[in-house]
Amino acid sequence: MFLHDKFGRAITDLRVSVTDRCNYRCVYCRTGNEGALYADLPFADYLRMVKVLVGLGIEKVRITGGEPLLRNGLVNFVRELSTLRTADGRILDLAVTTNGHLLSDLAVPLKAAGLKRVTVSMDAVDPARFARITRVANGFENVLAGIRAAKRAGLEPVKVNCVLLRGFNEDQIVEFARFTRDEGVVVRFIEFMPLEEDRVWSPEVVVTMDEILAALNRFRPLRQLPNSLSETARRYTFDDGLGEIGIIAPVSHPFCGHCSRIRLTSDGKIRTCLFSLLDHDLAARMYAGATDEEMADYICSVVEKKEARHHIGEPGFVKPSRSMVHIGG
Predict the structure, then answer these.
(1) pLDDT tens, residue by residue, 98-121
(2) I need a surface site. Which of 111, 176, 184, 280 has the fewest CB within 10 A?
(3) Is 92 left (phi over 0), alpha (psi -120 to 50) or beta?
(4) 162 beta partners
């Protein structure tokens, strides 16, 4: 019994948020003043839910937040996850998405525990611009140190995600092109989605994939790299093969038709799409005494109803019931 939705898509990728807390307040994300809204569960409960999901065909597990490195016990959680095996006996592909602020001290322990890769959110390579976006003073040097520590630890490829907002950081595109070449990391630009707390998104704020490609090609000619159908990013390198750029374009070039992902929120609810209007409470069933088999049946019934696509920019679009920070990236 493997996870497939009614459109025939195999669900093999899981995002697990382990906390709703974050130590940054980025202007495109935690735009309100609410702070954390949802509970963190014990790691043992996440572990049981992940085990059931892995038994249903999940092959990749990405730990997210909030900011996951804020959770005490994260390294041991990674160690326990690393003992799980996919349905065909392979080691799980384990990754973390983090703002990188605490990564320099944790990169080596996480690697030793079994983490494979790390993605760091960093929206400017200029310290002043970085502080303006994150609303955290002196964070840039911490994040840069975390990226370099992750590379030294072998958590590669290290990916650096940049959300572009017109009027904030679109002038950083070329600076990030230099960054990928200088630092040996994969830089991924992400179109701004309507997932912020204050609901201030508008199409005019989105820096589109076509604009990003034009700016990069003015810096140096690009050539496209191959990627699998379920990958979220279109991949490029420069004409001399130095550096790698990914562009995640859910607004201008949606990739829903090959989506392989579901999410588990910090309070134990399944979300079948970032833009879902409903949560599905797996933790409640677990706490009510459901067996692993009953949990698996419930998960299959939820995934079977996964949405065909999002409807960003269409008439009547309804924003999701949670903002990104409360879902898990």
Answers:
(1) 999 999 999 999 999 999 999 999
(2) 184
(3) beta
(4) 189
